[in-house]
Specification:
Layout: E1 4-8, H1 13-24, E2 28-33, E3 48-50, H2 56-66, E4 70-73, H3 80-85, H4 87-107, E5 112-118, H5 141-160, E6 163-169, E7 171-173, H6 191-199, E8 206-209, E9 221-222, E10 224-226, H7 227-242, E11 248-252, E12 258-259, H8 260-271, E13 277-280, E14 289-290, H9 295-301, H10 310-323
Parallel strand pairs: 1-2, 1-4, 2-3, 4-5, 5-6, 6-11, 7-10, 8-13, 9-14
Antiparallel strand pairs: 9-12
Helix pairs in contact: 1-7, 2-4, 4-5, 6-8, 6-10, 8-10
The structure holds nicotinamide-adenine-dinucleotide.
Nicotinamide-adenine-dinucleotide binds near residues 53, 75, 118 and 185.
Length: about 325
Amino acid sequence: MNNCVLVTGGAGYIGSHVVKELRRQGYQPLVYDNLSAGHRWAIREDELIEGDLGNKRHVEEILRKEKPLAVIHCAGSIVVSESVERPEFYFRNNVINTFNLLEAMLACDVKSFIFSSSAAVYGKPHQVPIPEDHPLSPVNPYGESKVFVEKALRWYEEAHSLRYISLRYFNAAGADPEGELGEAHNPETHLIPLILAVAAGKRPFVEIYGTDYDTPDGTCIRDYIHVIDLAQAHILSLGALLNGTTSRVYNLGNQRGFSVREVVDCAHMVTGHSIPVRESSRRQGDPPVLVASSERIKKELGWKPHYGDLKTILETAWGWMKEGKRR
Ligand SMILES: NC(=O)c1ccc[n+]([C@@H]2O[C@H](COP(=O)([O-])OP(=O)(O)OC[C@H]3O[C@@H](n4cnc5c(N)ncnc54)[C@H](O)[C@@H]3O)[C@@H](O)[C@H]2O)c1
């Protein structure tokens, strides 16, 4: 039986953890990645097809040959500040290239799709925890690019019966507890690896953007979700699609927020190293609090986070930073 699942962006941070989990569950993952931000060490050479989603003919050729059961679409450009400076690049890579992929899928009769969406679709929420039916009001081109795709998916479903699950991740963090995979973005813009780089002596301090928010300690609050719990949600979503579920949208977070200062304090406890901070002014477009309601995926797919507490998230990320095996 063909058990192939195509994972775009599978050499990246989240995609590589999804690929490992797919393998563990008996699927045959195949990675489609241009390695613009992904890493060869994060995947097996025989599972990689090097290619760019801008090349629709190539994508179609691969889909026709491999006939995957589904496509998990993790590829994309992810730096919010860059998206503000270069919106055209973000709309090309995150929207047009996704449409290329969807058209190639339809041409090859591949009709199950899992999409890496983001909490950025909500912008500045007026309700926390944020439910999936909260209005979508992104405040940067990155978030807008995810909204474009989500809106289009509905019409692909109506016209072509393409079924999809859109997963709106909150702040992905942590690393493979076996130490094979972890976060290695370049440039790194995510708080936890930046804090741990300070603990490891690779950076002099952590920048805190804004200490005058209306939160208990004045710093922004975010919902951190372990990358393994995210990977599990993809497996459950895949199972649901293969069992014929209708299209869905799910938030993925732990329903618990931590302020920047709380993350710094917890990282100090986990690493035993001091973590100097530098306080700066607020960044444009940073909502004070982003916390997910993930009740829907728990209820409908039985998803349950296993690495939910911040200490475990930091311990696995620290383990990776200190002694991760980059093959
Ligand atoms: N990391 C997070 O906290 C987070 C939160 C919300 C949503 N997301 C979404 O999850 C997805 C994965 O994020 P990540 O942190 O793993 O990012 P990442 O940069 O580590 O991985 C993205 C991968 O996509 C590949 N890629 C980019 N453009 C491509 C193209 N045109 N053709 C082929 N491959 C291409 C890159 O080489 C990279 O391997 C992204 O879509 C991102 O928007 C991430």
